[in-house]
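Exercise 7.
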Amino acid sequence: MRLERLLVWGGILFVIAGLMLFATALPAYAQDDSPEAVGVGEPPTFLQDIYDAWVGSAHADVMAEAFVHWDAEGEVPTSCARCHSTTGYRDFLGVDGSDYGSVDAAAPLGSVVNCDACHNAVASHLTSVTFPSGAEVTNLDASTRCMVCHQGRASSVSVYAAIEEAGLGDDVNAISADLSFINIHYYAAAASLFGSEVHGGYEFEGQNYQMRFEHVEGIETCADCHNPHTLEVQVETCSTCHEDVSDAGDLRDIRMAGSMIDYDGDGNVREGIAEEIETLQEILYERIQTYASEVVGTSIVYDEHSYPYLFIDTNENGEADEDEVNRDNAYASFTPLLLKATYNYQVSLKDPGNFAHNAKYHIELLYDSISFLSQEIGEDEADVVMQLRRDDAGHFDSTAEAFRHWDVDGEVSATCTKCHTAEGLPFFLEHDTLIAREPSDSLNCATCHEGVQTGEFLVRELNEVTFPSGAVISFDEGAPSNLCLNCHQGRESTVSVNAAIERAAVGPDEVSEALNFRNPHYFAAGATLFGTEAMGAYEFADREYSGQNEHVRRFDECNDCHQEHTLEIRFEDCADCHENVDIESAADVHLIRADEDLLDDDPVDYDGDGDVEEPIAAEIEALHTDLLATIQSYAANTIGTPIIYAPASYPYWFVDGNGNGEVDEGEVSGDTRYAEWTPNLLRAAYNYQYVAKDPGAFAHNPRYIIQVLYDSLESMGGEEAVANYARAEILD
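Solution. The predicted structure, written as tokens, is:
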């Protein structure tokens, strides 16, 4: 049967393909009826090349399981014909006159995916596709034709529905005969590419996931990376940026600068991202087997070549033995958690290009499956998860609130796009204005680099940056770290707080409805570093403050101390000078007391605890903690309305309903936001938030921070509040 098919199709397909391609090509050339225009007697030479490319592809492999699987049945059923025959694909599109979006009749045997599937009047106009989850992706290009099939056949929705129909509720470990393995199917590349937009993997409740993987401009769709006829990856395109890529095998070694995180916990951040995924797959499989054995009580094995893939490990040796891999031995003791984890395991395995299509989405699916299984297995297993990493550094963390905050609205407001979308900063630098944009996954290479498409990766040059106070600041002309200052500057300043107080026109301890909390925003490290030059913190009148914290030569700019892409502290360099501290990790930097005070005969005890050798971070923490207590005392005793601070909930300051000084249930909501502001309370609360939202303030400019905390304490409680404290001097 197979030999006969091969011989027949070997001759017929050449003729059919040539005729169809010739007929399809004619309109593009036939601008008139002249023989020269239509090529009478001499078909365009490119048709032969296209046929040769197609005939060697998987789409034309007449002997492949994808096309012969139904030989014994005599036809390709409607549930499979859409992607396993040209007849079914055309039926799904409605080219045959049937309704679009469904296959109405079984397809005959002997078909492959030939020219007529993708080159017809309907396919050529496709711009949207609906995925198994029900999510529709619109405004697509010619690659929509690929996505009709390369989307899988299941999704988060399928898994949710199966568990709900089994009536298992919240018991993740309940075994149910009504549950069976759900298979996403093969080569669901589009489901990987669009990630959480189409929910191809099982996405655990409460977790955020990577959306569409945005590569670089011009390399965004199937046909941008794959030859549409051979299906092979166009390696020469990849090598434009990835210099070490010379063949398809080298693609597995690619590791982008935005993914320098040790996801699999093996200590190697130079290996290809494909290897990170493979190790996580191995860890997940081990967790699946442990969970099945210890929690479910029935051991499990996986065989990638045999449906339904998961079987009972009858001899409990952890291997899929020949006598175990059969349908009669199919695994049937699924719990909701086991179903979710095995589904994600299969999702990752069945897209061999997952590392290129959307590596981070697969890493998140694998990590979460490992994590939730480990929680049920036991504490020892959960410890292993501590070695793994799920999310990238802040600039590339697609799951972070910094990028997901606007998902519900579908639009990032203009005032936020500069720092919270990939395209916002380049647009601002070019046009000196901002516009609203769709949410981004994260920042990307082109946010900070020019020439990404040509592989140059030149840092965008910027000579100076304007801060919220109006101050124009620069590290130096063209310094790369000037880019960092665009976002790490905060959004308020002494100037804006003073303007709000002036508009209210009340005394320092008078409550005004015209006042509300001014949030300096997050990670204003640049403003801290430049101190009074930027006036990022609130600076009290008639007081002097330290300016730029000039560390030591070679450690004056952002990228001198932070790795540009992971954002991690270059702590190894700190150890060169700070020999009195054992610095073996970034956390150890908090132990430094790098201050001229240690060189003096009379070192300063800033927080009044008698310890002049404790880390400078500890001195600042003590002042910061006392400031909150002083704010609360002021609010309760001077204003008469107690206040609490919730660092993760906007607008951060709320009414302390029971007056116990703690954040209790029901006290943090829009209805309980604090509204009894006086100028003094606003200034102090602003500075408290400023320090809280720059966790590296102790290193960025410790003297400046001590000064603003000291002055805030004094403004709230008078001289008694700072009687035991010392204000940092301004150094020449």
